[in-house]
Amino acid sequence: MSKVAKFGGSSLADANQFRKAGDIVRADSSRLFVVPSAPGKRFPKDTKVTDMLLALYKSAAEGEDFDELLAAIKARYDEIITGLQLDISLDDEFAEIRRVMKEEPYEDYAASRGEYLNGRIMAAYLDFPFIDPYEAIFFNEEGTLNSYKTEKVLSKLLAEAGHAVIPGFYGQGKDGRIKTFSRGGSDITGSIVASAAKVDTYENWTDVSGFLVADPRVVKDPVTIHTITYRELRELSYMGAAVLHEDAIFPVRSKGIPINIRNTNKPEDEGTWIVESTAKKPKFTITGVAGKKGFCAVLISKAMMNSEIGFGRKVLEAFEENHISFEHMPSGIDTMTIVVHETEFMDKEQRVVSAIHRMSQPDSVEIESDLALIAVVGRAMRSMRGTAARIFSALAHAHVNIRMIDQGSSELNIIIGVENKDFETAIRAIYDIFVTTQL
Ligand code: ASP
Description:
The chain folds into two domains: 3-207, Acetylglutamate kinase-like (Carbamate kinase); 288-438, VC0802-like (2-Layer Sandwich), CATH 3.30.2130. 38% of the residues lie in helices and 19% in strands. It has 14 helices and 14 strands. It has a seven-stranded mixed sheet, with helices on both faces. Strands 11-10-12-14-13 form a five-stranded antiparallel sheet. By secondary structure, it is α/β, with parallel strands linked by helices. The chain has helices at 15-27, 49-61, 67-83, 91-103, 107-126, 147-161, 186-197, 230-238, 249-253, 311-321, 342-345, 349-360, 387-397, 423-434; strands at residues 3-7, 31-36, 164-165, 170-172, 178-180, 201-206, 227-229, 259-263, 272-275, 288-301, 335-341, 364-377, 402-407, 413-419. Residues 9, 37-38, 48, 50, 114, 168-169, 183-187 line the site of aspartic acid.
């Protein structure tokens, strides 16, 4: 058995959190590779070290005095070092950061130092070798990951080290300068390391015990999802249920390595397993329910639409011409509905409507706003009779008016459109009928 353990910012926010992470690594000798984030928030109003570093860069780029900010960042690390009673100093590292910020400041370099410094501390604390991703993770000219070179160099370095700390979030750009992933990108590093080391499990340690069946801001104490497939996860993440960076999926998925989301503050919890496929029967018919407010539906009607060749293309062209992507497209015999994001659509609304008229000569175009979409997701739905009926009767009982229904042919999900004001009631009703009543 071998594992990669990636720790998020809240898991390494101070000495106390570091100690928990250290205990977790030491508790299982198969946790060979550790990928730390930068120190995150210690309390809700706190500032993440990455954000402090980005502010530092801004000051430096504008030629302002940044010493106070740099001292505040150093204080965050010194507190961790002292709290862990480590016999190391980051004075040289900070002198180097100060030099670069004075002489040739650039944003990615500044942002990456949060992970770099935390990696140094973590390596000393665990007494693990340190691998700098600058030497091991490479980007192409366009800024995408150079997976071929990365895999080649990184897997060799990891194999030679046997066990190591590899900071998250950055690597080396084609121009030889440091380059970071997008925000939250340490998840991606963890996945790349897991893939290169060919471990059995990619553990992603954070501050929740995995994915929840519903949003805890809407449903009180929702249950945790035990196992979710990558495809189900994609459906739920699309609706905003985010715990993991989306780009973190590919490297491990392509190697068949499962991701285990774990809680640093409750290591006894098993967390959520994200897998390619599974024979495990889920406990509930649905794996999860998630949704988003703020959609618009553009309803296009035209008699005999079904027999007019090219009608749909002309309508979609009106959206394309205005650079609007559409989210869903349920259709009837003489009607077609295009669902778009309100924010993307609002400013261009009249231009789109006139383009639809010009291109496809419909009988009418109507717009409905304040629409919320809810995705009920579950691999078990395919083999269960009456799932849709249960959803609809639960919503009817809760006095929610359904405005739209869309079921993809994968039968992995049913998307329901309701009015924004009914959003929370609808989610609770669906959760209750599938989960609360089955507990
Ligand atoms: N520290 C970076 C951020 O705040 C990357 C990460 O934590 O994954 O976005």
